[in-house]
């Protein structure tokens, strides 16, 4: 695959399968209440995302959040496993390390 390598997906600090998350951007997450982090291989992420994240990390502008989330959605494939299904709502932080990029934000339980 030519995309960024997803190293891990966590919701509230617990590792989940990429198949247990979906992406729907919301300015005001509803119902919210959870946080997520996705850790990506930095070299692959730079090729895939092309420097969309803000210099120095932090919260990207809304338009950049939408682009990041659209690209993240294409990476989050995998089997659905036991446990909850979560909706990733926004991007509040992007931290660029030497070997990885960590994207974080607010997520919600799936409301039926």
Description:
By secondary structure, the chain is of the alpha+beta class. It has one domain (6-109). It is 20% helix and 33% strand. The protein has helices at residues 42-49, 62-75; strands at residues 6-11, 14-15, 21-23, 33-41, 86-88, 93-96, 100-109. Strands 1, 2, 3, 4, 5, 6 and 7 form a seven-stranded mixed beta sheet that branches. The radius of gyration is 13 Å and the shape is globular. The chain starts with 5 loop residues before the first strand and ends with a strand.
Secondary structure elements and their pairing?
Elements: E1 6-11, E2 14-15, E3 21-23, E4 33-41, H1 42-49, H2 62-75, E5 86-88, E6 93-96, E7 100-109
Parallel strand pairs: 3-5
Antiparallel strand pairs: 1-2, 1-4, 4-7, 5-7, 6-7
What are the defining features of this structure?
112 residues, seven-stranded mixed beta sheet, 33% strand, alpha+beta, 2 helices
What overall form do the CA principal axes indicate?
globular
Strand content: 25-35%
**Integer count of domains:** 1
- Alpha carbon gyration radius: 13 Å
Structural class: alpha+beta
Which bin fits the share of residues in helices? 10-25%
Main beta sheet, described?
Answer: 7 strands, mixed
Multimer state: single chain
Q: What distance separates the N and C termini?
A: 33 Å
Low-confidence stretches: none
Tally of separate helices:
2
Give the total of beta strands.
7
